[in-house]
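Help needed: design a sequence for this.
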């Protein structure tokens, strides 16, 4: 018998929402449950729609490991748009190249990267809007005319009616590096990401790690790098307590391990 239940990223997060998971997401001074993250994902999707994002749009993210990045992991592909996880460790000219090549429509960008973006402004022809982000809670000044502040959109908490998607819809895009020539773009579909999530759930659960939903997860593979090896999507499916280190700093990471 044919099973038409689509394997989509939204289905991963909805399982946690149905359980009203009390697992926390911790990022800097921000702390909330996965159920509250689902509310914020709704607000982000509603705000992005207001910026013109629709099915097939490309949304680039230029950030360190924060709760905002994690929210984009779900909100953007659940809209039917494509999440472009921008590698901030590339040389500036290659960062610009990937944004141009991807034809990003909107770029979500952390305040510390705005000076870099300003130098690229004349190259970013496809970018129609910027969404700035800051740990300070204060909107940074931006050299781009069509700019909004992330917190203003998410705090609106507007309900968003996520569309029914084919599992073969493109979900994410990132660029390889360290090989010959310029970085090469790689797409993943919803189906590929969900199957990978189920695969690592089985593999890590039945291993020496014995990973399960009661564990505390702190990614130390950047969220721009191959979906943080896919573990943030597993954390979303299980509602695991997730601790995000921001910009990697040895002392901060050790403090987080001890505290959380």
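Sure. Designed sequence:
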């Amino acid at each position: 018998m044919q099973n038409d239940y689509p394997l989509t990223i939204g289905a991963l997060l909805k399982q946690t929402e149905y359980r009203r998971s009390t697992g926390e997401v911790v990022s800097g001074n921000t702390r909330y449950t996965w159920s509250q993250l689902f509310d914020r994902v709704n607000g982000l999707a509603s705000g992005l729609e207001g910026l013109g994002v629709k099915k097939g749009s490309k949304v680039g993210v230029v950030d360190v490991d924060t709760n905002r990045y994690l929210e984009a992991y779900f909100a953007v592909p659940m809209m039917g748009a494509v999440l472009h996880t921008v590698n901030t460790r590339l040389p500036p000219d290659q960062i610009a190249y990937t944004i141009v090549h991807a034809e990003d429509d909107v770029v979500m960008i952390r305040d510390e990267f705005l000076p870099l973006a300003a130098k690229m402004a004349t190259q970013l022809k496809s970018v129609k809007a910027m969404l700035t982000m800051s740990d300070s809670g204060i909107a940074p000044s931006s050299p781009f005319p069509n700019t909004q502040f992330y917190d203003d959109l998410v705090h609106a908490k507007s309900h968003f009616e996520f569309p029914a998607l084919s599992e073969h819809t493109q979900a994410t895009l990132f660029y390889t590096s360290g090989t010959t020539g310029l970085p090469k773009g790689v797409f993943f579909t919803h189906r590929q990401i969900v199957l990978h999530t189920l695969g690592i759930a089985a593999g890590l659960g039945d291993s020496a790690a014995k990973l399960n939903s009661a564990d505390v997860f702190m990614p130390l593979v950047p969220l721009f790098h191959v979906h943080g090896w896919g573990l943030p999507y597993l954390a979303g499916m299980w509602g695991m307590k997730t601790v995000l280190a921001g910009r990697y700093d040895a002392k901060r990471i050790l403090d987080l391990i001890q505290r959380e």
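The longest helix spans residues 34-50.
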